[in-house]
Specification:
Length: about 150
């Protein structure tokens, strides 16, 4: 029987949403109190609605990560969302990508939007930039990431 070790992008997305919601729920409850279940459900919905994946991100995650690394990648995405801020000029959103280097060695390129939203652009392992395609390398340079 053929076993695949491919990563499931929707599973990673759900894990990342869950991790973001769990961390932000703790923070929210500590600051304002409230019902944990209600707060977590509200934050989960907001994060889920605001998280978008580019087709490029989905393709690259499947190519570069194995199913064993799903939890690690979801954690890196969660930290990237929580530790980056949207770039704004006054009240106008600046659609500029940001590179987040996680403690696990995973690089997440994302564009933050609003309080919880993010568009995930691409991801790769730190030190393996030489595996990026010419097109991807050119796009990341145009975005000011590399």
């Amino acid at each position: 029987m053929l076993q695949t070790n491919f990563v499931n992008v929707s599973t990673i997305t759900m894990l990342a949403i869950e991790k973001v919601a769990k961390a932000l729920t703790k923070k929210e409850l500590k600051a304002k109190g409230g019902n944990e279940i209600v707060v977590k459900n509200l934050i989960s919905k907001q994060v889920g609605d605001g998280l978008k994946l580019s087709a490029h991100f989905e393709e690259r995650v499947v190519q570069r990560f194995s199913a064993d690394e799903s939890e690690l990648l979801a954690g890196a995405i969660s930290r990237a969302i929580r530790q980056t801020k949207p770039l704004e000029l006054g009240t106008h959103h600046l659609p500029k990508s940001q590179k987040f280097i996680d403690e696990s060695g995973i690089v997440i390129v994302l564009e933050r939007i609003g309080r919880f939203g993010a568009v995930l652009v691409t991801s790769y392992m730190l030190g393996k930039e030489n595996l990026l395609s010419d097109i991807e390398l050119r796009e990341l340079k145009l975005r000011g990431i590399l």
